[in-house]
Write a structure and sequence with these properties.
The complex is a heterodimer of chains A (396) and B (147). Chain A is α/β, with parallel strands linked by helices and 396 residues long. Chain A has helices at 17-23, 25-28, 42-59, 72-86, 102-112, 131-137, 160-170, 241-279, 306-315, 325-328, 335-339, 344-348, 361-380, 383-395, and strands at 5-6, 66-69, 93-97, 117-121, 142-146, 173-177, 196-200, 211-215, 283-285, 296-301, 318-319, 350-354. Chain A is globular and about 80 Å long. Classes of the chains: A alpha/beta (396), B alpha+beta (147). Chain A binds chain B through residues 106, 109-110, 113, 303-305, 307-308, 311, 315, 324-326, 329-331, 333, 344-345, 348, 380-386, and chain B through 7, 10-11, 13, 16-18, 27, 31-38, 54-60, 62-63, 99, 137, 140, 143, 146-147. The structure holds pyridoxal-5'-phosphate.
Amino acid sequence: MEKLIYLDNAATTKTALEVVEAMLPFFTENYGNPSSVYGFAAANKEVITRQREIIAGALGAKANEIYFTAGGTESDNWALTAAAEAYADKGKHIITSKIEHHAVLHTCQYLEKRGYEVTYLDVDENGLVNPADVEAAIRPDTILVSIMFANNEIGTIEPVREIGEITKKKGVLFHTDAVQAFGQIPIQVDECGIDMLSASGHKLNGPKGIGFLYIRKGVKIRSFIHGGAQERKRRAGTENVPGIAGLGKAVERAVSTMDERAAKETELRDYLISRIESEIPYCRLNGDRKKRLPNNVNFSFQFIEGESLLIMLDMKGICASSGSACTSGSLDPSHVLLAIGLPHEIAHGSLRLTLGADTEKEDLDYVVDCLKEIVAQLRSMSPLYEDFMKKQKSGQ
Amino acid sequence: MYTEKVMDHFQHPRNVGEIENASGVGTVGNAKCGDIMRIYLDIDENQIIRDVKFKTFGCGAAVATSSMATELVKGKNIHEAMQVTNKAVMEALDGLPPVKVHCSLLAEEAIHAALWDYAEKNGIKIEGLTKPKSDIHEGEEEEDEEY
Ligand SMILES: Cc1ncc(COP(=O)(O)O)c(C=O)c1O
């Protein structure tokens, strides 16, 4: 295989060299436990404090509102279950959307089995939640609204600010899963009325297995992991010091390069979209054209199935992902694609390409050339395409 | 996740295409679940499968099992073709991941559906052949409950 073209940056990203360098001293040199009293461990405590400040700065938050976790999934689980428990006196109703990540949806299902009621809001054909629907769904017993900042499959950026205004007005907590958005687009928690926010290191060239939950001061949510006094007793356990050092560095990098990176990626993204749309027939762009993450491209190709497409791309050295059932390990295609109204057979033929900071135009040209060939080849052996062409012919 | 044989049949599928005025055609599966197979049979007067072609919409395993099934029935008589079970297809491919076993069932069904069509057209009965199911996933177990 020649060059590897990695277009699955929504799944995970390459850890930046600078990030690795920032982590290394905390394995073999400064390996002390940050909770220890002696001077040897002081550097470890200090690095945690510093990274907390960097992250808080990126969000317009205060350092003591940032809690380190083992990643996006843990942050989502914590935010939802702890808020549900803490506010159960007020009520047991939660509002979310049909296109959330499983970290949110499966936690909601867990809560439903324990007596909570969850409203799953519909989205429009581009994957947008309507803020008016959020407002209409809020009841006196509603305690939490959880709507993602941007969707991981189709890249749609949700109207978070409008939703935050509503939750603030109604006195309901607002959590947002910003795992895909943080580090890609600007986020200010106060401007958006966000009470809790989940993020993850490995989506922004940071390490895997580290993330954080922002919890606004005054939100009375309790500890999730019980034990020592780490993270203000709310998330016990000896800190993942190298991970935290890496996360802070990754956030610093992401914030300082954001504008430039977003401009470059948006241009490349739109180039890729326009080439695919003009050169491959019977395809559909999934997600909003404008309110879209700078690095996300998601298409459905009619008459073909996603897994075959991925294997063929892989043979050409291209890494991508799909919302087809075969890649999710179930019989149903992606819940996100079904929620935007795609019929099953079209959802099965979806392809997600997510760009990274080092994606070049030539890479995309190569991808489109391969894609054209592969789609044509798969269609030539598709009974659905055969039927469609026969119908076209007899119709004329 | 796939064996070399599966990858070979996926990359170089044997017998892709259509047969005009085929002796029997069978289509099974459904687009909702993400796989459809269509088999065309050309059967001579001695009930030997002279030629066979397929078209498949589906994952890598669906393409590979269709391709292997066509290889296994080609040149056989219709009774021998009935012996080409999903197990035989899987074995010939050196196995499939557990979540893909249904693809081999689909391949067996597709052959049976094409043979059924042939039998209907010619007013004959083939021992052991029953009317094809319209949905391959009928009666399949639901996933285990979590939590
Ligand atoms: C929107 C969203 N939420 C949550 C997660 C889970 O994050 P992590 O892999 O850090 O647990 C992901 C990543 O897959 C995601 O895209």
